[in-house]
């Protein structure tokens, strides 16, 4: 019976083309607007590394001066060089990495490519395993390279192809920042969304482009390269690079990976003990709580999904409700002209339940057609949104989950809108309709 009613629903679309087109278009626009904003919110709020998001932690100490401090003030979420070096030398967690941004002048071997600036990171050797970075050629550097401050580099696939084409560049030497570096690895395409491991200090934050190169943290320090990104200094410090390193300026992002999520309490205890020891040395005078954020908490702390994005999603759903109200009115008009048909069917023995099923399935057909059109409109809307900025390009794309959500939302919306008109159609009195014929 379902297939028969479904075919009747398909045929009914051609019975009043203008009214049907208006219903489908109204539903499609509402669904497209909702799905487009929901897709962006879905991508922005997704878990970027679900297999270990509860085992990766950002520690945060408040090392600011006591003068002018009010308990509860939010201090910068980065770390000083002093604390980063101390934590790197500790046994906290299974892996540890300090990270800061770099920007270097590249001098390619190819004569047809002039010198250019490339942006990247200076992490430690644990970085690649901590964040599941995929390698196309070679591998990352070793802990021994960290210790020696070796001049080695890992390139992104995009940068490697720009300078070497499809050839494997591992083993070659590359001039960067007037220094010779040996290429030890090339990462495969690695677009993490949101880009959780380094949000602070980027133009587009969590939705910036992938980094182009990676060199050892200790090597960047040995060459006295300044951070390319956010640096916060709450007090004066001694002149020169060494004075900067010895200061309380915060400019490093730090991550710790534990063996299991259950090790969080032990890690927190270690951080608290470390802060107590530093206070004995005259540091961390504010005695503020030492925070520990896992990946999801870190994204929430930095407000990666802002209130504006959430408000946009609610407004889009409000627009969908408005479209459903209009669809209800159109369905009432469509079903009202079929009162005589319902009366004859009831007189021939059809039950109200059968009439209800028939008309409800017809609204499902409208929902399916509206969903198909809404999907096309959503793709168009996302394409227009992606053109607005580089950051939006990273999030304005639809996956299979949202593809299924689009059709489910369209059909559910049509069925919801059709409940009242369908119920009204079932209330037709056969005797009155037969008298009027």
TrEMBL record:
<dbReference type="InterPro" id="IPR003838">
    <property type="entry name" value="ABC3_permease_C"/>
</dbReference>
<feature type="transmembrane region" description="Helical">
    <location>
        <begin position="311"/>
        <end position="335"/>
    </location>
</feature>
<dbReference type="InterPro" id="IPR025857">
    <property type="entry name" value="MacB_PCD"/>
</dbReference>
<dbReference type="Pfam" id="PF02687">
    <property type="entry name" value="FtsX"/>
</dbReference>
<feature type="transmembrane region" description="Helical">
    <location>
        <begin position="355"/>
        <end position="388"/>
    </location>
</feature>
<keyword id="KW-1133">Transmembrane helix</keyword>
<feature type="domain" description="ABC3 transporter permease C-terminal">
    <location>
        <begin position="315"/>
        <end position="429"/>
    </location>
</feature>
<protein>
    <submittedName>
        <fullName>FtsX-like permease family protein</fullName>
    </submittedName>
</protein>
<dbReference type="Pfam" id="PF12704">
    <property type="entry name" value="MacB_PCD"/>
</dbReference>
<feature type="domain" description="MacB-like periplasmic core">
    <location>
        <begin position="20"/>
        <end position="228"/>
    </location>
</feature>
<keyword id="KW-0812">Transmembrane</keyword>
<dbReference type="InterPro" id="IPR050250">
    <property type="entry name" value="Macrolide_Exporter_MacB"/>
</dbReference>
<keyword id="KW-0472">Membrane</keyword>
<feature type="transmembrane region" description="Helical">
    <location>
        <begin position="400"/>
        <end position="420"/>
    </location>
</feature>
<dbReference type="GO" id="GO:0022857">
    <property type="term" value="F:transmembrane transporter activity"/>
</dbReference>
<keyword id="KW-1003">Cell membrane</keyword>
<dbReference type="GO" id="GO:0005886">
    <property type="term" value="C:plasma membrane"/>
</dbReference>
């Amino acid at each position: 019976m379902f297939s028969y009613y479904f075919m009747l629903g398909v045929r009914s679309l051609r019975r009043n083309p203008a009214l049907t087109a208006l219903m489908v278009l109204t539903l499609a626009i509402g669904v497209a607007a909702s799905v487009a904003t929901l897709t962006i919110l879905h991508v922005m709020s997704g878990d970027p590394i679900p297999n270990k998001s509860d085992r990766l932690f950002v520690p945060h100490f408040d090392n600011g001066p006591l003068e002018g401090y009010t308990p509860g003030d939010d201090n910068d979420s980065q770390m000083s060089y002093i604390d980063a070096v101390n934590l790197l030398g500790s046994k906290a967690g299974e892996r540890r990495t300090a990270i800061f941004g770099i920007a270097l002048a590249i001098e390619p071997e190819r004569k047809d490519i002039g010198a250019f600036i490339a942006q990247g990171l200076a992490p430690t050797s644990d970085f690649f395993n901590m964040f599941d970075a995929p390698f196309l050629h070679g591998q990352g550097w070793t802990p021994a390279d960290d210790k020696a401050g070796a001049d080695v580099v890992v390139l992104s696939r995009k940068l490697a192809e720009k300078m070497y084409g499809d050839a494997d560049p591992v083993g070659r030497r590359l001039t960067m920042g007037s220094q010779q570096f040996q290429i030890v690895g090339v990462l495969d395409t690695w677009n993490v969304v949101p880009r959780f491991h380094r949000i602070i200090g980027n133009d587009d934050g969590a939705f910036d482009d992938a980094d182009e190169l990676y060199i050892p943290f200790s090597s960047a320090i040995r060459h006295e390269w300044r951070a390319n990104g956010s640096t916060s200094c709450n007090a004066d410090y001694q002149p020169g690079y060494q004075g900067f390193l010895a200061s309380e300026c915060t400019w490093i992002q730090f991550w710790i990976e534990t063996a299991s999520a259950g090790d969080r309490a032990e890690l927190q205890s270690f951080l608290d003990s470390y802060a107590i020891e530093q206070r004995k040395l005259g540091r961390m005078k504010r005695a503020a709580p030492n925070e520990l954020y896992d990946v999801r908490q870190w994204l929430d702390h930095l407000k990666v999904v802002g209130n504006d994005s959430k408000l946009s999603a609610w407004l889009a759903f409000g627009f969908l409700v408005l479209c459903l109200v209009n669809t209800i009115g159109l369905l009432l008009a469509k079903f009202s002209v079929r009162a005589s048909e319902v009366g004859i069917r009831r007189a021939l023995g059809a039950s109200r339940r059968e009439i209800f099923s028939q008309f409800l399935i017809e609204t499902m057909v409208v929902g399916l057609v509206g969903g198909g059109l809404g999907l096309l409109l959503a793709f168009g809307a996302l394409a227009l949104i992606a053109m607005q900025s580089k950051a939006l390009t990273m999030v304005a794309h639809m996956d299979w989950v949202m593809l299924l959500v689009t059709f489910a939302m369209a059909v559910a919306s049509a069925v919801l809108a059709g409940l009242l008109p369908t119920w009204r159609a079932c209330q037709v009195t056969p005797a009155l309709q037969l008298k009027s014929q």
